Each structure stands twice: as structure tokens, then as C-alpha cells.
Amino acid sequence: MRFGLSALLLLTIASGAVARELTVEERKLSNGMTVLIVERHTAPVVSFNIKFRVGSADEEAGRTGVAHILEHMLFKGTPVLGTKDYAKEKPLLDEIERLFLEFRAKRWALPASLRNDTDRHDAILAYVEAAAQGEATPKEGLIPAELEKDVAELVRIRKEFHAIQAKLEEFVLPEEDWKILERNGARGLNASTGADTTQYFYSLPSNRIELWAMIESGRMRHPILRQFYKEKEAIKEERRMRVDSSPQGRLFLTLMSTAFQAHSYLWPTIGWSEDIAEVSRTEVEQFFREHYAPNRAVATVVGDVDPDELVKIMERWFGDIPCQPEPRPVVTREPRQMGERRTVLRLPSNPSPSVLIGYHRPALGHPDFYVLDVITGILGQGRTSRLTQSVYFQKRLGQAQCGNQDTRFENLFVFSGTPVGATTTEQMEAAIYEELERMKTEPVTDHELARIKNLNEAMFVRSMRDNAGLANILGTYEVLYGWEYITTYREKLAAVTKDDIMRVAKKYFREDNRSVVTLAGAKEEK
């Protein structure tokens, strides 16, 4: 194992009254897994966060949503956890996979003329699914005579599929690892997937460290993606709720697919609906093997822990998991935008109108990124921010906000506007652009600059006050850029000048660098 030199972080805690030094100790397991440790012995509790260097940005066209699928599936257990009898379960898992692949191959082999007739194609597939469960007969004229045998074969395969799926349920012990952890005092137990990272996190009593190592090493060593096709149905429903049936979800998705034409940020973390439906367990398992190896993982442990003892436990449970070759990196860069892009989104539910405006900007760690963090605060943080004062209080147009998320690759600086009353999205846009032009031509005041630097520093420190927050922050920055980022953040933020703000505003907030998506409400219909 390799011992990394610690770094001292002077963090101002509790409204600036107390300064506390935090030592971050970096270790490497023999298989390349990174471990970041912070000792805090104020309570017998430890917060754990394992982040994998993978998210939806690492996927490819036609296979989107796989990282999010794995977020769900890695709670399904191992050959030991989550099953009543894995020896009897495994042949059924193999058989259901064979049936899915056979069904998919025969469906893809249907004539192109049918596949291109999407309405009829979807109607036939709906009939196949219903007939496989004994709930339908074909409508007259739905199935061409030359395809009757093919459709009958699809029904047969699907019937067998459902029969095997029912048998598999007899072996499942649902969420067994989750229940074990909760019985042992786990709090904040959850997982999440983003464009850049996937993480599993929770807190446990400090005498349960070995339990954490056992559960998480099993998740990394040999996960069994049981209930895979059942869980995909739940994921498709989640997508319908979060995207298809959510005006704001649709609006953000449309902004990203408008602003990006090449980079993988253009597709949603949850994936495209067709990709979710088409992907097989075999393909998801392959993605897991490529991206979820120990050398692709960062474990952050904060709390009542002895670093030497922790590493001994982790070597015992994680050390024999082999590292893997680094997967092909994301090499596609978004070409420079050469003109404004606009999209109008109209939904049948006639939601309230709103607008999103995105400007391309650099990734975390770029010198201009610190300036953009300051601009975020000046324009959009708090009641005294420029957008709130101008758009909401003075002009009474509605709510306007902005955001600059930490990301691994070049992304968007996003403005959102929600008009009220008779205000139109065009008026909201104009008000936002007016504030941006002010920022390009008029230096911000000393008071504005000092306020936002103090506010950003306070927010940054507060996010690390509790164990779980610090574990999340350290792991996030280690994956995105290197955890040492937080040791210089305040210094670089403090160095931002008024001239920097004007320069960066001119550089990025240009008409030819922006994409605008408008959600047209009923009152904006022509």
C-alpha cells in the first residue's frame, strides 16, 4: 500500500468563531483503490462514501442510462446476499437472459418496412406483450399475413420469459444488504448517479466498519443483477415521472440536447427510453466490469476511525479484487458553438411558461471557473443578488436564477426564468440579458464582491461541517479534479478581481455561445 502525505485544511466553523485543522490522509490499497480518511472522534460514528469514476458521460450512443441502471442493480445482492439458493437461481438467471436476447434478435429481424411504421410496430409489440400474459387477441388487420409466424414466435418467447421471471422471484430476498445495514444502525443510506460520478454512501456506528467493508466489497467484487428486467420496468416508470411527465424535466433535457451536439452531456443521466428498453443484462455487466474496478473507485471515510486499522480491514475485504485496465476515456469535445440556438417546447398540459438559457463554459479547475463561481453569487445568490433585485423586486417580472455546477468536462452556465402574471418569456429573457450586459461594462461594487466571496466561503465550509458532507465533498473533488482542489479554493476565490468578472462575462455570455429553450404556456399560444 502507498501512504500519501496529509494536507491541513483550516476551516472556519460555526459563524467564524472557531478554526479547526482537518488532516486528510490519502492511502492506496494494493489494487489501486484510493482511500481518503479524516479522523473525527467527537462521536462513535463513521460516514462512508464510495465514488466510482463513471457516470452517464462515460456511456455511448445507443447504450445510455447504463450507469443509472447499475445504481439500482448494485443493491440486488451477491451470490451470498439477496438469494435463498444461488445454485438453483443461477440457471434461471442464465435462461431469462437467453430468452431476452433471443426475443430482441427476432424483433430486430422484423422487416424494415414494419420497424419504420412506428405506430403499427408499437401496436404489434403491445399485442405481443398482452398475448404473452393471456390478455389479448390481435385486432383485425393488425398483423400482416406474412408476419403471423414471426409474431407467434415472439409471443411464445415472451411467455417463457414471464414464466422464468416468476420462478426467479421465489429465490429473491429483496434488499437484504439494505436491511442488514439498517439493523446495524445505518443512517443516510442511499446512492446516486450523475453525469460524472456514481456513489454509494451512508453512516454507521464506528464498531461496524468491517460490516461496511464486507457489504461494499461484495458490491464491487461479484454483484448479481437479479430482478434485472423487473427493475428496468421501474426505471422506465421513474423516467416517465422525472422527465416525460415533468415540464421542468423536459425543459432541462431539451436545453442539454440543444446546447450539445457531440459531447455525451447531451443525453440524460437516466437515459433515453429506447435505450433502457433495449439494453441487456449482459451488456450492463460488461459496462460494470469496465468501469467499477477498485482502481476506478475512491472510498472516503470520515469520523471515529483509526486509519491504520481501517486500511487493514479494507485490504482484507477489498484487496483481492483485481484492478482493471482503464476504459477508453471520453475523447469527444463539444465543437465551438457558432451561433445562437433556440428551441420552443410545447406540451399538451399547457404548463406555466418558463425559459432556460445556457452558455458554454469551462470545466472545474479552469482559472475562469473561480470567476464564474463569483458571478453566480453576484447574480443569483440571496435576496440582494442582482437578478432577484432587478427581475423580482424592481420589475416584478417573476423569478430568475442561475447556476454553475462542478463538472468534469466543459458544460453550461445556466439561467432560468419563470414569468408571473402577464409577463412573457421574451420579457424575462430581456431582463436577464440586461443584467449580463451590466456585468460586462460596469465593475461590480466592493460590497458585492466582498459579500459573495464571504458567502461562497461560508457555504463551502458549511458543506463540510458534518461527516457525511465532508466525505461527499472530498470524494467528489477527488473524482472530478483531485481532492486538493479544496485546499486552494478559498485562496483562488479571494483573488478574483472586478476586471476578472468583466473579462469572463464578455468571454462567455455571448449571443453566439448561448442556447435558449422556452417552455411555451397556454397564454403564449398564437
Question: Could you walk me through the main structural features you see in this protein, from its secondary elements to its overall organization?
Answer:
The protein is an alpha+beta fold and 526 residues long. Helix content is 47%, strand content 17%. It has 19 helices and 13 strands. Strands 1, 2, 3, 4, 5, 6, 7 and 8 form an eight-stranded mixed beta sheet that branches. A five-stranded mixed beta sheet has the order 9-13-10-12-11, sandwiched between helices.
Summary tags:
single chain; 526 residues; alpha+beta; eight-stranded mixed beta sheet; five-stranded mixed beta sheet; 19 helices; flat; disordered N terminus
Can you give me a brief rundown of this structure?
The chain is α+β, with helices and mostly antiparallel strands. It is built from 19 helices and 13 strands.
What is the general shape?
flat
| Backbone structural class | alpha+beta
Rg over alpha carbons: 26 Å
Per DSSP E runs of 2 or more residues, the count of β-strands stands at: 13
Fraction of residues in helix: 40-55%
Q: Would you identify the regions where 5 or more consecutive residues have pLDDT less than 50?
A: 1-19
What's the pLDDT, averaged over the residues? Answer: 92
Distance between the termini: 67 Å
User: Helical segment tally?
Assistant: 19
Strand content: 15-25%
Largest sheet data: 8 strands, mixed
